[in-house]
Amino acid sequence: MKQSNESKASLLLGAAFLMATSAIGPGFLTQTTTFTETLAASFGFVILISIIIDIGAQLNIWRIIAVSEKRAQDIANDVLPGLGYFLAALIVAGGLAFNIGNIAGAGLGTNVLFGVSPQVGALLSGIVAIGIFLVKEAGKVMDRFAQILGFIMIALTIYVMFTAQPPVGEAVTKTFAPDTIDIFAIITLVGGTVGGYITFAGGHRLIDAGLKGKEALPEVTRSSVSAIGIASIMRIFLFLATLGVVAQGLKLDPSNPPASVFQLAAGNVGYKIFGVVMWSAAVTSVVGAAYTSVSFIRTLSSFVDKYHKWFIVGFIALSTLVFALVGKPVKILILVGSLNGLILPIALGVMLIAANKAKIVGDYKHPLWMTIFGVIIVIAMAYMGGYSLINGIPQLFK
């Protein structure tokens, strides 16, 4: 049965927002404000380069998923038997570890808004996230949830940006002629936007909803670029808000940089706005991480596929329970954070190989410029991911 144009448009927008809000989590907010404080207006250049890389990764991965009509782990198994299981293990381990951080962020947001302890706030937020997957039309509810909270985050951040009165002219100039170029900042932003499970969130959502095949490529392409666009809009406005605060000579609180940006820019109202933005960013990332991580094991086990909703619920419940009982497991986050840096080059590398195998993509011809773009991203991210891994492991034993 063909989908109506209206339902198809809603699905494409929902997939874009699912990917974007999966990217916009507590780490996204902290990275953006911290790098803006250290690089000032030159951070605009970092954002520009990371957007270009993000689009290259997304275009390749979403198109190949659509054309093959398979999820990433099945494509990987077709490329090399067993590789899909390895990729799924990396995604699920990374998704679980970072979901604990996302739950922690949701707890912090409720703490700012209502004064409840982060643990209580995390438990309540976990219940909200679980509730989405208990309703009959869970996919549609998830799409709408991501869209509404995504719009709220962006609108509130725009308000704070205007109150901060950033030097927009300087930001534009330094975006194209930066004083310094920070390679590590670029890699961090790329990893935070399309690393780990994030880049597959929208692509797998479209497969689940039946939007696939060569005929769907124009729409899939638009949706993938829209996803990066939404995340980038949020990044740019948060960058400008922070720049406005930093340009006034004000210091950010190192224990919570994004909260101090909102508070310094708009007083107590700004602090409460931060609570809404942090909670929205965190809880949508919880939903995206759980949905995408479980989508990586659905086709590897008929039992998981049959009860996938309950596995998603269990994934969220486990993340919430670990945070409530143990707190943020820093050592696990360091290790899995390093591994997460390797997921994008592995996954994208597999996709580029798959794009040239007729048994996977049929008579589809992948554009040469996309392949070249993808190979450059794989090499750059593999190098930096390896560097992160080598430097991350010794910290576990300090």
From TrEMBL:
One of its GO terms (molecular function) is manganese ion transmembrane transporter activity. Its main location: membrane. Keywords: Membrane, Transmembrane, Transmembrane helix. The keyword Iron does not apply. It is found in: Membrane. The chain crosses the membrane at residues 39-62, 83-106, 112-133, 145-163, 183-203, 224-250, 270-297, 309-326, 332-355, 367-390. GO terms for cellular component: plasma membrane. InterPro entries: NRAMP_fam. It is a multi-pass membrane protein. GO terms for biological process: iron ion transmembrane transport. The keyword Ribosomal protein does not apply. Pfam families: Nramp. PANTHER family: SOLUTE CARRIER PROTEIN FAMILY 11 MEMBER (PTHR11706), TRANSPORTER PROTEIN (PTHR11706:SF2). This is Divalent metal cation transporter. It comes from Exobacillus caeni.
